[in-house]
Amino acid sequence: MIIILKSGIGDAAIDDVCRRVTEMGYAPHIIRGEFKTIVTVESVMPVQQPFKLASREVRPEPSEVRVNGISIGGQAIVVMAGPCSVESEAQVREVADAVKAAGAKILRGGAFKPRTSPYAFQGLKEQGLKYLADARKRTGLPVVTEVLETESVELVAQYADILQIGARNIQNFTLLRRVGEMGKPVLLKRGMATSIQEFLLSAEYILAAGNPNVILCERGIRTFETTTRFTLDLNAVPVLKKLSHLPVVVDPSHGTGHWDLVAPMAKGAVACGADGLIIEVHPNPEEALSDGPQSLKPSKFVQLMRELRPVAEAVGRSL
Amino acid sequence: MIIILKSGIGDAAIDDVCRRVTEMGYAPHIIRGEFKTIVTVESVMPVQQPFKLASREVRPEPSEVRVNGISIGGQAIVVMAGPCSVESEAQVREVADAVKAAGAKILRGGAFKPRTSPYAFQGLKEQGLKYLADARKRTGLPVVTEVLETESVELVAQYADILQIGARNIQNFTLLRRVGEMGKPVLLKRGMATSIQEFLLSAEYILAAGNPNVILCERGIRTFETTTRFTLDLNAVPVLKKLSHLPVVVDPSHGTGHWDLVAPMAKGAVACGADGLIIEVHPNPEEALSDGPQSLKPSKFVQLMRELRPVAEAVGRSL
Amino acid sequence: MIIILKSGIGDAAIDDVCRRVTEMGYAPHIIRGEFKTIVTVESVMPVQQPFKLASREVRPEPSEVRVNGISIGGQAIVVMAGPCSVESEAQVREVADAVKAAGAKILRGGAFKPRTSPYAFQGLKEQGLKYLADARKRTGLPVVTEVLETESVELVAQYADILQIGARNIQNFTLLRRVGEMGKPVLLKRGMATSIQEFLLSAEYILAAGNPNVILCERGIRTFETTTRFTLDLNAVPVLKKLSHLPVVVDPSHGTGHWDLVAPMAKGAVACGADGLIIEVHPNPEEALSDGPQSLKPSKFVQLMRELRPVAEAVGRSL
Amino acid sequence: MIIILKSGIGDAAIDDVCRRVTEMGYAPHIIRGEFKTIVTVESVMPVQQPFKLASREVRPEPSEVRVNGISIGGQAIVVMAGPCSVESEAQVREVADAVKAAGAKILRGGAFKPRTSPYAFQGLKEQGLKYLADARKRTGLPVVTEVLETESVELVAQYADILQIGARNIQNFTLLRRVGEMGKPVLLKRGMATSIQEFLLSAEYILAAGNPNVILCERGIRTFETTTRFTLDLNAVPVLKKLSHLPVVVDPSHGTGHWDLVAPMAKGAVACGADGLIIEVHPNPEEALSDGPQSLKPSKFVQLMRELRPVAEAVGRSL
To answer: Which residues of D are less than 8 Å from C191 in CB distance?
Structure first.
């Protein structure tokens, strides 16, 4: 830690600073400049990253999160796909079949929906979870779905293979601890104003509760730009891979808010080092109950998967 | 709603758009330009604000929230003050006595603390609530304190007069609904990346659950600027007063992160129309367990209250 | 300067760092932690602020900029008012008479207009400057007007009493140096993404060219919020007053973009320590060639001046 | 254009709005809702993009900018590389040889440097331009270099093949017009707070002055995130390609500020559709007079070019 003292400060004040530092168990070093005086405090903690379990310093090799035989963070890029909201049994079934056929490895879909307005569709809740579980049975695809609140963690965990923590809950520390105690893999989405350091400290809450199976997800941050719904921050991918051993996936659907930006940003994400993607697919985006404008039709998703394969191979990965 | 069609679109496609709009129960109006065609959809909803109960359109006169005989949103500016975290019985007592003597009307203090790091001090929890209740008994000041999670809403409500929802929980919709059902006054803090519209929609969750006693609190948003911890957005005060009837208070302590900016920004807040302030006061800011750098010493708080009075009077309010 | 070395770095590498630091003329201090090693470099420069002439450290007492007997930065709050664009002789005359009668001390008006689109009205240019000079003759009010480019600095300086550098030119360093060489007072507007440090370094360009007459102007920064055109950052007022001796004025018209937010934010600015205001006034805002929505009608300006006076007095200033 | 009238507005006021719209030469359409009234104004202009010459609506096929036989915006990805600042003849020569050998097609280097501080190195100016011209002669690589001010446009144009407008001059409209009149290709860098629409309107200034040879360059925007120097906004690539026919290149060096993020973001840029890259290479980054931390050593640049090739091919491009 570095303490910069005001110019013209007296010796008594400097002594007082040093005394306090010593009381805290550290060794102060005084550096007197021509105009200012600095006290440096020898301390291991502030030099290391404030996150420990999430850090590359603690675990230099990358982590892999395994779910039903699929590894996230390994050599293969893992694509998770499905509708924003689960709307009906037929819808989930149709999408699940389509994304599986196209090569997706995990089925996504929201049963509990966090909505900005209290008057908007809030999800099918447990019925939606059942449709997802049926689709898993049918296709063999593991299911990732959001859990909104501590009260429903157990319920969601009965049906889901991966528990998703949404962007709005990134600093809901009680919920983070609870999913940490569950042990099931967690997909943790960065909040819209979450710094990289805060993101990793939120992951640390889950890890510190005993659950090492955390997947980080970049999904767009809030900036001044309005042509995109959020600003998908692909820089976060190499930054997170440098600071942490945890796998990183990217959500170009929420991150951009426009279906025609999903394919280019998905390719960009893979090229810059993402371990996976999470993509919204809907049979009739115009009639979706949420986030239609950013959803791909199944045919567009097939095309995207075809285009992604050579990009993955170009960076030494498979799809 | 306005639908702008791509240039060169054919009549069949325009008809299809109109048919779909009609099916949704609205009356489309087609406007053909030289290059583009627009379809306007006559609909009451999207023209009105998406928030209803929080809106000035629904209730033109300002709301007042009353707690123990104090009115927030009335003629008088209400100052809430106290430590960031409750740390000990003596600390709360000392601060409570001091802020009461200086003219504060409500005691603030955190017993459950949301902390970015899992390794930071998380608050004294129920013991902290007890110290706050003791200080209320001693001073007569009602207590505002944060509730972090649905599980502890009832517990906190036993001790607190106003339930605070912190910035990190602004879109924790389950928690919003729960404090909405409680009926007790709620101090709702804007999140660090929450737009004004989202802020009012979060208030709408509480109002729609049956609780009209919502106080809005501006506490700084996240921008590129780093000389302040956050960018306290005083523009939000007149904007919120224009759009909503709910009372608005300002937190210059969290909003700036520096104790020497608290007094000027507190005066600015009152001058631009705030109904109240929430200010951190600590007997020994250098030794505070959280947010020391932004806390005022009691003597500075006394001085601030003295300086605030003429500003309040200059804008037709009392203190 | 602090150099943090990677964990596990060898002695040879540490020696190499120290050798390089020594070559640069500084004295390195090595601090070995349990996991990491830090080298601190004793150097006066990086500890002080990077701006020198603009700094409070160099000049602790506030500066006053004087123009035609008016002092900006002194005890009195100085209000500058007038139209966004000069549109006609009659318009300038009408506004000049009105703002003078209401108590404004300086006339503002744009003759050279920086416009986002090449197809928008670009100002009356020299003709506009003449109308401003005529209005000065008539009312005695000194004139502040924007200079867009080095080529027209001399021309604008013939007519203007204060040269305004607009937000878009905050890092047009050639223009900053040129107005620095002129000696005339300069109103320097913060750019929409300019940090406080960059702002003061831009002022430093003018000061270092020999011109001490710099007035800083906060006019709104770009954030995610869209209910205001920009986010007027009133925090900048006390921050700038703390770091620098230069006078600070606030532009609530551009800063908010809405005429009905101008009065509350103007009062907020004065209460938090601004030395002046710059406000747009137009006889027919609905027909203004630029920025009509943020302009006050003369009658509203009269009312604002009346409301500002007690606020100024409440913070120990006059108007 | 859509005009939404306040609830409860009278017929006289509605008539007045319509009269004014008619006077402006447009046809108003009134839509009365249950609570509100909307007037839509049939007008070609506001429906189309405000930029015309830059727009895909005006020119659906992509533009190519040609310089010395190289096409930017064609099938091949074009890499521009070189030092941030020209520092010496030897430095430019060494870098030019190295980047040419590695496959770069254009040499970059700054002779006139825009520096935040007036006390920082401001570039070698004309001497630097001469070193660049020598390096072109030696290697055959065309040169791109920044022009800071209208006064030196002719001088820089004597030496440069592409004139670069830096981020700080994105709304220096006089300079934009001047390089528009020159006709030489222009590399236009997005400012750090420039919206996509403003970016294209700045390009429009150059195009409207008669110069069709504009290359757009994304180089990072300012956000709250501090682990990167700026937030390189790769979303801008597909958004610009959708709205405009102009070629788009990406600067991952300035955009991230860290050399170890350059390679992943360069690959991401190519994968999401960029037509080219501009990359800083320095023989001794630790001793660079500017931007050392973000510069690649020649050996790292060779490696990057090797890794980029398969990514370019994966998206149907060559390198």
So the answer is: 193
Rounded Cα gap, residues B272 and D16, in angstroms: 33
Virtual CA dihedral for D157, D163, D166, D171, nearest 10 degrees? 90
The two beta strands, C106-108 and C78-82, are parallel
Instruction: Give D244's contacts (C-beta < 8 A, 6+ positions apart).
Output: D51, D54, D55, D56, D200, D203, D216
The yes-or-no verdict on residue B113 having pLDDT over 70 is yes
Predicted ipTM of the assembly: 0.87
The reported pTM is 0.89
- A196 to chain D, closest Cα gap in Å: 7
Rounded CA gap, C111 and A213, in Å? 63
pLDDT tens readout for residues D246-280: 999 999 999 999 999 999 999 999 999 999 999 99
B222 touches D: beta carbon within 8 Å: yes
Query: Rounded to the nearest 5°, which phi and psi values hold at C308?
Result: -70, -35
Q: Tell me: the pLDDT tens digits for C12-40?
A: 777 766 666 665 555 666 766 555 566 65
3-state SS assignment for residue D45: helix
Burial bucket for residue D316 (CB in 10 Å: 0-12, 13-18, 19+):
exposed
**Chain A CB contacts of C55 below 8 Å:** none
Question: What's the rounded Cα separation, in Å, for the pair A4 and C47?
Answer: 8
Choosing among C5, C31, C228, which should be mutated to test the A contact, i.e. which has the most A CBs within 10 A? C31
Structure tokens at D11: 């017929």
Is C117 in Cβ contact with D50 (below 8 Å)? yes
First CA to last CA distance, chain D:
45
Rg, chain B, Cα only = 23
CA-to-CA dists, residue B230 to A113, B227, B258, angstroms: 29, 9, 10
**pLDDT single digits (tens) A116-126:** 999 999 999 99
pLDDT at D140 over 60: yes
∠ Cα B306 B300 B266 (to 5°): 65
How many CB atoms within 10 Å of residue D286?
11
Q: Round to whole Å and give the CA distance between D39 and C126.
A: 39
Q: Quick check: B35 and D29 CB within 8 A? A: no
Written as six digits, the tokens of C240 are 């700038």
